[in-house]
């Protein structure tokens, strides 16, 4: 068994209005519940927008505290799920269902080492 | 070519496919198979070639892999070595689906890999081509290709791209990448990118074999039948395409009695069968173009209007500079070389001799001899195949009034 990080790639800007968002969240919830039932779900989190980020930059002996995301971009990781899957195809299948539910790109990335 | 080299071409892909199933890792499989060939180079000249060279390579590679796993004595590796020892060896073929090479094809052509990487992997792991040969087929520097292969294999391992033929429901989606890869294996065999032989028969035969397997596996996919038809019709002309002295004979000058009638008939029947399904795709249309050529008893009888109409269709389905170039060749027959020459202007095919070679021919037909000679020189500067070079040199020498 391997683990994969499914990143939800969200555009910068206001989220859609509740009447659009609610059915999406219900669909996402349904996929997550199925994932738990299948024993594939490991961990998941929704993230605040990048404006809420703070970056720490080592500089000599100091560590600077800076406002903002590490990289300014038009998209950001809005949330993620870690799944357990036999292989990439199985991970892609879960990712595909999130992509269908949200209408957003999903980045599927293999976990290299669980021990760190 | 030495015995070992001949066996290498013949069985590298098969051996790596079998070993990948046994070892669960492509790099380890390649290493084991390369070890086995090194042993063959040392032993065969003295001991003679074994009765089943391909089987000998697989068995030796498996033993080398076991030795290596024992030496690198982590516990997991010892388990794997034990599992390998318990394995009675490769099971017999159980139809196309179980073919390890088909499995390897679908892994190499996985959609999570970049298209260029898919074809490169297929040529390396299924076709048994060297990195240099693949680089030439792709018209990129060898170092770029080496890096592309390393990265692609790294991704297969890191992301655990599975080693299997996809489930029935996923098959159609996964097909396009496989078809493209098999087609390129054929084109590489059809005009070998380097060396003194025009045609690498082994690659052509291999591509046709793979296309036949795919047609067995997916008899309802018109594009699979289209690809097979295209390869068969191309293959039917192989003997006529090379003169006894090894020189290239272009289509209009070929002795059509030397075309393989059985392959022509099979290809044409397939074209009719797949087009009846009413879902034309790029391979079916290309096959239809070749079928139109096969219909003509002499070059003069070629229905160029039909060929041009099919190229128009192909350009709409799958626009590319190479298709546009081939369409221009048909335009030259229907509307004359001047009309075709104008179509070449916007085309860009860096590192390929095809564009300057066609330009040279059109200029020659227009009597613009000096420009034709210059275009032949441009083509000669990039043509890697000795037979094609000889053809271009002959054509250049035939120009009258060139300096």
From TrEMBL, chain A:
Sequence ranges assigned to domain YCII-related in this UniProt record: 20-110
Pfam families according to UniProt: YCII
Chain coiled-coil ranges: none
SUPFAM superfamilies: Dimeric alpha+beta barrel
InterPro entries xref list: Dimeric_a/b-barrel, YCII
UniProt xrefs under Gene3D superfamilies: Dimeric alpha+beta barrel
Family indicated by similarity: Belongs to the YciI family.
Protein name: Uncharacterized conserved protein
From TrEMBL, chain B:
Keyword Transcription regulation: yes
BP-aspect Gene Ontology terms: DNA-templated transcription initiation
Alphabetical list of InterPro entries matching this protein: DUF6596, RNA_pol_sigma-70_dom, RNA_pol_sigma70_r2, RNA_pol_sigma70_r4_t2, RNA_pol_sigma_r2, RNA_pol_sigma_r3/r4-like, TPR-like_helical_dom_sf, WH-like_DNA-bd_sf
DUF6596 domain residues: 174-274
Gene Ontology molecular functions: DNA binding; sigma factor activity
UniProt keyword annotation of Transcription present: yes
Signal peptide region: none
Assigned protein family: Belongs to the sigma-70 factor family. ECF subfamily.
Protein name stated in the entry: RNA polymerase, sigma subunit, ECF family
Species this protein is from: Geodermatophilus africanus
Lineage: Bacteria, Bacillati, Actinomycetota, Actinomycetes, Geodermatophilales
């Amino acid at each position: 068994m391997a683990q994969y990080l499914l990143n939800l790639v969200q555009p910068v800007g206001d989220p859609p209005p509740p009447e659009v968002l609610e059915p999406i969240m219900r669909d996402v919830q349904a996929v997550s519940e199925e994932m738990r039932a299948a024993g594939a779900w490991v961990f998941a989190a929704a993230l605040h927008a990048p404006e809420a980020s703070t970056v720490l930059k080592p500089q000599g002996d100091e560590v600077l505290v800076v406002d903002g995301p590490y990289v300014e971009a038009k998209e950001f990781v809005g949330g993620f799920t870690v799944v357990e899957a036999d292989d990439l195809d199985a991970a892609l299948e879960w990712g595909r269902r999130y992509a269908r539910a949200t209408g957003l790109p999903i980045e599927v990335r293999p976990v290299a080492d669980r021990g760190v | 070519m030495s015995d070992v080299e001949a066996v290498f071409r013949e069985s590298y892909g098969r051996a790596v496919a079998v070993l990948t199933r046994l070892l669960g890792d492509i790099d380890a499989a390649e290493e084991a198979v390369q070890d086995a060939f090194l042993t063959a180079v040392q032993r065969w000249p003295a001991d003679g070639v074994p009765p089943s060279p391909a089987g000998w390579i697989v068995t030796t590679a498996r033993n080398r892999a076991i030795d290596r796993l024992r030496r690198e004595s982590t516990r997991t590796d010892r388990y794997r070595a034990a599992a390998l020892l318990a394995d009675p060896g490769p099971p017999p073929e159980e139809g196309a689906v179980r073919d390890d090479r088909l499995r390897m094809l679908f892994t190499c052509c996985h959609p999570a890999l970049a298209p260029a990487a898919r074809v490169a992997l297929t040529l390396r792991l299924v076709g048994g081509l060297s990195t240099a040969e693949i680089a030439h087929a792709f018209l990129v520097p060898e170092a770029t290709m080496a890096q592309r292969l390393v990265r692609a294999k790294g991704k297969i391992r890191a992301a655990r791209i599975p080693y299997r033929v996809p489930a029935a429901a996923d098959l159609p989606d996964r097909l396009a990448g496989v078809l493209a890869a098999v087609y390129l294996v054929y084109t590489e065999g059809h005009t070998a990118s380097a060396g003194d032989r025009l045609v690498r028969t082994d690659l052509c035969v291999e591509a046709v074999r793979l296309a036949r397997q795919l047609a067995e596996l997916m008899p309802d996919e018109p594009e699979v039948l289209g690809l097979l038809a295209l390869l068969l019709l191309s293959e039917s002309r192989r003997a006529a395409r090379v003169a006894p002295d090894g020189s290239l004979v272009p289509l209009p000058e070929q002795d059509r009695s030397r075309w393989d009638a059985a392959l022509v008939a099979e290809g044409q029947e397939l074209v009719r069968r797949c087009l009846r399904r009413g879902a034309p795709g790029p391979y079916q249309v290309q096959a239809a173009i070749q079928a139109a050529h096969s219909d003509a008893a002499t070059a003069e009888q070629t229905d160029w209007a039909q060929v041009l109409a099919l190229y128009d269709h192909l350009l709409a389905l799958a626009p590319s500079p190479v298709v546009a170039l081939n369409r221009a060749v048909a335009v030259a027959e229907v509307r004359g070389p001047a009309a075709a020459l104008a179509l070449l202007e916007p085309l860009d095919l860096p590192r390929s001799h095809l564009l300057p070679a066609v330009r040279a021919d059109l200029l020659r037909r227009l009597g613009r001899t000096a420009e034709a000679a210059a275009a032949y020189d441009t083509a000669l500067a990039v043509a890697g195949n000795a037979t094609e070079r000889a053809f271009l040199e002959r054509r250049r020498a035939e120009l009258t009034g060139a300096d």
